[in-house]
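In response to the reviewer comment on reproducibility (Comment 2.3), we provide here a single inverse folding case reported in full, input and output, so that an independent group could reproduce the run without further information from us. The structure tokens appear first.
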């Protein structure tokens, strides 16, 4: 019986010794849960840390040992992607904790950390260091615990680029938007759309909404449209309201709204045609055949082979609305030896003869086959930029040669029938004077014969 009692005593003693050894081993390993102080994370706000945003941790500090504790200090040692927030302490203290506390009597400490804005999605370690003194000893005990915090990737997208800054009126043009996922998490079910509140710019061949199934972090996608501006739109800068919605990792819908500017209007086009040529001037019709107004229009005849301009080679005709036209006149002639051929020049003192008529005819034919006349038009477009357009005009001439030519006798003499009018008048006057003088002479001869008794041969008898 005594042996049984002694054996029982030895078994009980070994059990207590093993339990004590286990406690001592736990303390030597630094596992805070095996020591007299137990620290737990009771709350995290938000539940998943977000890049660029603070995260708040609520810690429960509980004395589970048999001794009272004092001078308890809890310190956070953050590493990337977590960092200290200005004005927030990383070390907090509890002056006293009774032994064998339950959860309701535990101390509560709150800490705030900042999450790096470029943090990638994942799980990160955070070290918590606790120091305290036991009531029965003046030695400081230090324990370390590592917890894990989950970081949700940054979910953000933006419209980085718009392909065009301006479009023409009533002309189909491409318009592209580049959408980039600037966050660190994938985005899904993106819906992109835009509107012009004034209804001037509208998409063609499709509506204004585009769908993107998935967009990885750092990836870009191009959203393309064909657009057209109303033909009656006033040139100017128009606002496009851009909207982008997407779903995050928790299937929560988020929305981004922004604006973009698009200039409507720009260059225009002209049509130039030969109008008439008379009195030493060649008139040209200049019409604005584009869809935009042209400001401060200047029409010029540049230097070119086959033609020369007497006097001013340019004229300012002012503003031209779309569909308007104006007349610009210049003293243009075929240059000597130019591509347009030689122009016959007559001296005012020498009347034209048949040889000159042949020369004039040859000159007229030569002018009809001359090179086109180059006309340069400068104007300010709807954006305020100076533009230049060059057109070619075929100068039309009649067989009598209505195009003017300039020679030593003075510029602007007509090479047509009008140049012969002075000579024809002189011939008519000279002919009239000759007939008049002949009739006077006949009357004088008749009077002399009558006075001398002279009879005309037809009055004499045979």
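Designed residues, in position order:
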């Amino acid at each position: 019986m005594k042996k049984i009692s002694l054996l029982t005593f030895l078994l009980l003693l070994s059990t207590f010794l093993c339990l004590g050894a286990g406690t001592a081993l736990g303390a030597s390993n630094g596992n805070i849960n095996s020591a007299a102080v137990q620290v737990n994370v009771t709350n995290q706000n938000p539940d998943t840390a977000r890049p660029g945003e603070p995260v708040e941790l609520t810690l429960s500090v509980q004395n589970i040992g048999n001794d009272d504790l004092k001078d308890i200090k809890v310190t956070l040692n953050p590493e990337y992607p977590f960092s200290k927030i200005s004005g927030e302490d990383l070390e907090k203290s509890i002056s006293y904790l009774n032994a064998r506390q339950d959860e309701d009597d535990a101390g509560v400490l709150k800490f705030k950390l900042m999450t790096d804005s470029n943090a990638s999605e994942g799980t990160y370690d955070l070290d918590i260091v606790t120091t305290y003194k036991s009531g029965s000893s003046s030695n400081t005990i230090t324990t370390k615990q590592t917890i894990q915090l989950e970081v949700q990737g940054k979910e953000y997208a933006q419209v980085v680029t718009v392909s065009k800054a301006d479009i023409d009126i009533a002309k189909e043009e491409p318009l592209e938007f580049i959408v980039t996922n600037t966050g660190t998490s994938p985005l899904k079910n993106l819906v992109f759309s835009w509107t012009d509140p004034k209804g001037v710019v509208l998409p063609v061949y499709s509506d204004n909404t585009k769908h993107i199934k998935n967009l990885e972090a750092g990836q870009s996608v191009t959203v393309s449209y064909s657009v057209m501006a109303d033909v009656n739109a006033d040139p100017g800068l128009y606002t496009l309201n851009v909207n982008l919605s997407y779903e995050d990792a928790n299937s929560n819908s988020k929305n981004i709204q922004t604006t973009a500017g698009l200039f409507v209007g720009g260059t225009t086009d002209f049509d130039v045609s030969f109008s008439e040529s008379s009195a030493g001037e060649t008139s040209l019709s200049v019409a604005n055949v584009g869809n935009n107004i042209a400001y401060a229009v200047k029409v010029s005849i540049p230097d070119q082979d086959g033609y020369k301009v007497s006097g001013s080679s340019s004229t300012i005709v002012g503003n031209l609305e779309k569909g308007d036209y104006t007349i610009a006149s210049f003293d243009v002639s075929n240059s000597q030896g130019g591509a347009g051929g030689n122009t016959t020049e007559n001296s005012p003192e020498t009347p034209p003869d048949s040889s000159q008529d042949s020369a004039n005819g040859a000159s007229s034919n030569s002018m009809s086959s001359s090179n086109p006349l180059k006309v340069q038009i400068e104007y300010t477009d709807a954006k305020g930029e100076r533009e230049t357009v060059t057109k070619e005009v075929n100068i039309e001439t009649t067989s009598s040669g209505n195009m003017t030519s300039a020679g030593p006798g003075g510029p602007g003499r007509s090479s047509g029938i009008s140049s012969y009018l002075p000579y024809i008048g002189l011939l008519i006057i000279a002919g009239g004077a000759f007939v008049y003088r002949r009739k006077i002479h006949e009357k004088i001869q008749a009077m002399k014969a009558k006075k001398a008794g002279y009879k005309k041969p037809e009055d004499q008898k045979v």
